[in-house]
Design goal:
about 300 residues, alpha/beta, Rossmann fold, Alpha-Beta Plaits, 2 domains, four-stranded antiparallel β-sheet, 11 helices, about 35% helix, elongated, binds adenosine-5'-diphosphate, binds magnesium ion
């Protein structure tokens, strides 16, 4: 079995609110998969169905080879879930939190396991401090450490970096990479395009109840035209002259402040062609820059929305 998760035609409504309208995706074993979507898109709902916390209205969901509706206990023993809000007990120390979960999951060498996890998540120095004194990043690390007790095959991380400062966010990214490198399948949700771009081998974009695009970051970026060149001119007259010269050969968008955005193509020869045309007409732009497609462009094209933070 190559797939860790197979979701087909997943539907879920809350009363009249149809949140998931037939969601399809597969997650390969050992990969980092990012479900990308804005607030309210249905990311947590999808995770809750996969983690057996919520029953679907339709479709099929298989996790670690088990059907979530028919074999929920099997699924539960193969996964762990770290929610959007950390589930650690504030009144306990980090070590006590880990020991508690170890006991709940009947781990034999639970104190040894706790020590290893404290080390791995850079919490050894803070091991015997109460969690109330922890920063957001430390809490999140402890939360993930707790979820790893029992070596789950698949780990679900619901918005693992929301609310973290840039340093804590970078540390979390490294933790997630380490998890995947050790063979765990990581399914994460995020609203952040750069996070999906940075971490995930496969990205699926959830919008209006469906997966509207999925693939590697590279594949997704190919969905929008590449080779955009932004030209800025000295005055309105020069801008108009450039527009007249280029408009028959290129797709051009007029921007504010004497700017034209030209779809020039991706090869050096195509780019050169654009600048030769301008030079031959004695038009020297005040400034120019090349713009490669980003996930923002893809997100905007497919959803009509700017990334919301
Ligand atoms: N328990 C619930 N009861 C009713 N509506 C809900 C419930 N949970 C989520 N919703 C609604 O479903 C939609 C998707 O929510 P959610 O899955 O939490 O989105 P996301 O995690 O992408 O922000 C939202 O409109 C939300 O208000
Ligand atoms: Mg959510």
């Amino acid at each position: 079995m190559k797939q860790a998760i197979i979701v087909r035609g997943l539907k879920k409504s809350y009363k009249a609110n149809q949140v998931l309208k037939g969601v399809d995706f597969t997650v390969n074993k050992g990969e980092i998969f990012a479900l990308l979507g804005s607030n309210g898109a249905g990311k947590t709902t999808t995770i809750n169905v996969m983690a057996t916390l919520l029953a679907a209205d339709g479709g099929s969901v298989e996790v670690a080879g088990y059907d979530v509706a028919k074999q929920p206990e099997k699924v539960r023993s193969a996964i762990s879930l770290t929610g959007q809000f950390a589930a650690v007990d504030d009144t306990l120390t980090a070590r006590e939190n880990l020991a508690l979960i170890g006991d709940l999951r009947h781990i034999k060498d639970s104190s040894q396991t706790a020590n290893e996890l404290l080390e791995k998540f850079q919490l050894a120095d803070a091991a015997d401090r109460r969690v109330t004194t922890f920063s957001g990043g430390m809490r999140r690390r402890l939360d993930i450490a707790m979820s790893l007790i029992g070596n789950p095959e698949v780990i679900f991380l619901d918005e693992p970096t929301t609310g973290l400062d840039p340093e804590a966010r970078n540390n979390m990214w490294q933790t997630i990479r380490d998890l995947a490198a050790s063979g765990t399948t990581v399914f994460l949700t995020t609203q952040y395009l750069d996070e999906a771009d940075e971490l995930a081998s496969t990205i699926a974009l959830l919008h209006a109840g469906k997966i509207v695009a999925s693939g590697t970051a590279r594949e997704l970026k190919k969905l929008v035209p590449g080779g955009l060149v932004e030209l800025t001119f000295h005055d309105q007259k020069q801008t108009q002259a450039a527009l007249n010269i280029l408009k028959n050969d290129y797709k051009i968008a007029e921007g504010e402040n004497l700017k034209l955005t030209v779809t020039a193509g991706e090869s050096a020869a195509q780019l050169a062609g654009l600048f030769i045309k301008l030079r031959d007409a004695h038009i020297e732009p005040a400034d120019f820059s090349q713009h490669s497609p980003t996930l923002d462009d893809v997100f905007f094209k497919l959803t009509g929305k700017k990334e919301e933070n």
